[in-house]
Amino acid sequence: MTAGVTDGRNDRERKKQIILGVFLSGVNHHTLWADPEAGSQIAFSTFEHVARTAERGRFDFFFLAEGLALRERNGLIFDQDVVGRPDTLPVLAALAAVTEHLGLVGTLNATFNEPYELARQLASLDHLSGGRAGWNVVTSFDAFTGQNFRRGGFLHRDDRYVRAGEFLAAARRLWDSWPADAIVADRAAGTFLRDGGAGAFAFSGKQFDIEGRFTTPRSPQGHPVILQAGVSPQGRDFAAGGADAIFSPYHRLDEAQEFYRDIQARAARQGRPPGSVKILPSASFVLGDTREEAEERQRDIAHRQVTGRTAQILLESVWNRDLSGYDPEGPLPDIDPDPTGPPVIRGRAVLHQDPHRTVAEWRALAAANDWSLRELAIHVFSRTEFVGTPAQVADRIDDFVQRDGSDGFILGSHLVPTGLDEFVDTVVPLLQERGSLRTEYTGSTLRENLGIPPRTAS
Fold it and tell me: Are 182 and 195 in contact (CB under 8 A)?
């Protein structure tokens, strides 16, 4: 090869490979369930269509977000929410039968479950899927949600990471209780145990004191892939130490790069090798034949997602006041938030720790841009990050990942179940042409496809 001439094939091989997941939210205002093209939010055909489309696009995994309680406003169920979503694990188990390569990741709560039961269910899913199970570990300190469970809402907010840390450690102890060679397959005698001690475990901590025998043999991945989210220093340390992938809330490149570097540094300080933790923001997309067409579509979608009533409710989650008397097309409320009053909204995750500071920032934004209450809500609660032609969206995704803003994205669509089809048909081929996205699956497990080192028995 002539000096100075670049081998294009080698350039493609050296490019960072983009991780792609697809998510279906639980309770949310983003899904346009009333759209004429929308399908059922609970029929299995919906989940199957999205999963098969993602696998056709060589995505890494299908992800189910979940809510454990129907959200309420002043005691009444939100009529903006999708409700009635089936339980996560049966859906993922059913999808294992209609997919071959796609990872199957579920949001499962460490506050209201028990290690033995959940570890057994996840190991079973890993067996049934041939090593494609993943667990998004979440916590809750919400007494409203806790009323659905035996413990109620007793868990103090400061203790949620203590319990989650012990929960994950206990689950790993259970998964490691079976050596890889503990099962012997014999055609004449059937399958039997080589080691009568397999499955024995004991774990003792502040939250759990358990011992016994784990009934489920070591699964194909050893440990399912673990996903977590953490923005606070405590949350970042917890995720960097125990997760294989972390949800990032940052979409601006400079902030995303800082978060990426910080998480990798925290993981290294905890003795983890480079590449052990993948960073994955969630995002949505709107495509068009031109940028102008895509932007017009995005404006229409955003205004259907955030109606005037929805805008009032979204802001009530921060103000903690009844804002139904304020005109959605008028200015922001002139009253201060009331964080210590009885909750107006129940069952929604707390996204803003300092309501007074958040409201001050929003007022400055609204004044600077001449935004109404509704326009502000559209801008601050929107997650549509990729708007443009397929080529423009492919360029933005590729650039963001190659510059270590993330390792990929978890994509959602306003239209269920067919919204992902357009992305797979038009953007995926362009990413494949760039050498940034696989054209075929190369691993047999989710962990292998993600490029995450295996977890060894502790």
Answer: yes
409-to-82, 190, 322 alpha-carbon distances in Å:
23, 44, 36
| Predicted local distance difference test score (pLDDT) of residue 157 | 72
Phi, psi of 282 (to 5 degrees): -90, 150
- Chain centroid to Cα 285, Å, comes to 16
* 232 carries a ligand binding annotation: yes
Owning domain of residue 28: 8-291+384-450
**Residues 174 and 135: beta-carbon distance below 8 Å:** no
Q: Collapse the DSSP code of 202 into the 3-class scheme (helix H, G, I; strand E, B; otherwise coil) and give the result.
A: strand
Residue finishing a domain among 381, 404, 425:
381
Instruction: Report the predicted TM-score, pTM, of the whole model to 2 decimal places.
Output: 0.90
371 neighbors 336 (Cβ within 8 angstroms): no
Looking at beta carbons, which pairs linking 139-145 to residues 24 or more positions away fall under 8 Å? 139/109, 139/110, 139/111, 139/163, 139/164, 140/68, 140/109, 140/111, 140/112, 141/111, 142/69, 142/346, 142/347, 144/69, 144/72, 144/343, 144/346, 144/347, 145/68, 145/69, 145/112, 145/347
Q: Do residue 370 and residue 244 come from a single domain?
A: no
* Three-class DSSP category at 111: coil
455 CB neighbour count, 10 Å cutoff: 18
Helix/strand/coil for 76: strand
Q: What is the DSSP letter of 207?
A: S
Lowest-pLDDT range, 38-42, 53-57, 163-167, 348-352? 348-352
Is-contact 366 376, C-beta < 8 A? yes
CATH number of domain containing 433: 3.20.20.30
Q: How far is CA 109 from CA 138, 139, 332, 449, in A?
A: 5, 6, 35, 25
* Other Cβ atoms within 10 Å of 251 Cβ, number: 17
pLDDT at 198: 79
pLDDT tens figures, 112-129: 889 999 999 999 999 999
Strands 408-412 and 190-193: unpaired
